[in-house]
Amino acid sequence: MDMEYLTHLNFRILLKEKITLFMKYILALLISITAFAEPTPTDNYLALTATLLEHRIINDDHLLCMIDGAENNKAINPILESESQIDSQKLIASQAYDNVLKDNIDASQITPWAKERLSQEAKKRSEKKEKQEETKNFKVNNFQRLAINRLYSCAIDKQSMLECWTIKHNEKSLPPKEKIGPVTNIEIGNQVLYAVTKKNRNIIYWDFGKKVLGSLSDIGPVESIKASYFDFCAQTVSGDLYCWHHIQPSPTPSHVHGSVKDFGITSSTLWVIDKNTNALHKKDLYQGNTQWEEVPNLNNAHTISTLISEGVVSVCIIFLDQTAQCFDEENHYNSAKEIPIPAEWQGSIQDTSSGQSYICAVLTGGSTKCCRTDEVDSYGA
Asked: Cis omega (within 30 of 0) on the bond before 340?
């Protein structure tokens, strides 16, 4: 029996260690409620049990004890019957049972209800275990690429399939990976996931908010993609770089560079590694036809990743020797603005991505490591 009419009550009092008059008052209110469905004494008995199970004050042993009593045609206080020592939480619950048991309880309803709850509790434990196993396997999975923002995270596994998860626990907003198929590259903008399909090397996108799957203009086979809050750019296999602004509906992209090895986008700046010189260049996205500016003292650059840490937009450069350096986009010359990279990562960094206050890296061999950007200790698989 599902007593939904009780779920609006504040039963957190059972989680407190002290017995107070306020707690007793709320408990009495819980027991005496009759406003919704005019519950019978048996309804109150079972509803109290359901609430205590939900808050983990009682467990399967108490349900079994209730079944034993019901088989003898008796409704019992399962706490008093099964425990010799009672803490403050269970003392309140036991008092609640005593109050409910003052009325006539139909013991014949207890056994089927308790057996159903035992089945439900077993199912919950099984699902929790499966979820833990999925999470464990997911953490140790070997990823090729990562894409992270403050709400959503996605990765490409070794089979080129997309895996996404969200801290909002809203799985319905995640992309249908069976419709997307194998991909080679992914990026997450504001509320949009961009991916390069493995079959045709074209760009598709998934809008997390609208739950819409679409595609962008065909610019030829795509090598790499990057996204910021407002902008999205794609590098073709030939090294041409195209950018979109405020996609949806998809406008015609702008051709911004013709010799790109890798690139990155921050809030207002486009960063490019020239494939002929390995030099790092930058250009303001919103200043018209401004010239590219070479960034000094950052030679032998290999790949670029952009980060957001505590509201500060930063750039990470992975060099040819697989070491990395991260810095504030406005103060690349200031070493005090550098984001520390754990020493054990250096020399094996393949890819980087970040959330609001942390950075993650895919290392040689496919292992994934993460750390807060204000710390140097890392964790991961």
From this structure: no
Average pLDDT over every residue of 217-226: 89
Please, which residues bridge with residue 318 across strands?
303, 324
- Token pair of 39, please? 């519950």
Using DSSP's 3-state secondary structure scheme, residue 128 falls into helix
Is the predicted pLDDT of residue 98 greater than 80, yes or no?
Answer: yes
369 — pLDDT class (breaks 50, 70, 90): confident
State the Cα angle at 204 between 202 and 206, rounded to 5°.
Answer: 170
Long-range CB pairs of 44-48 (<8 Å, 24+ gap) are 44/100, 44/103, 45/75, 45/97, 45/100, 45/101, 45/105, 45/110, 46/1, 46/3, 46/109, 46/110, 46/113, 47/1, 47/3, 47/6, 48/93, 48/96, 48/97, 48/100
Tokens for 31, please give them: 């027991």
Least confident residue range of 148-157, 250-259, 267-276, 303-312:
303-312
Q: At 324, is the secondary structure helix, strand, or coil?
A: strand
* Model pTM score: 0.53
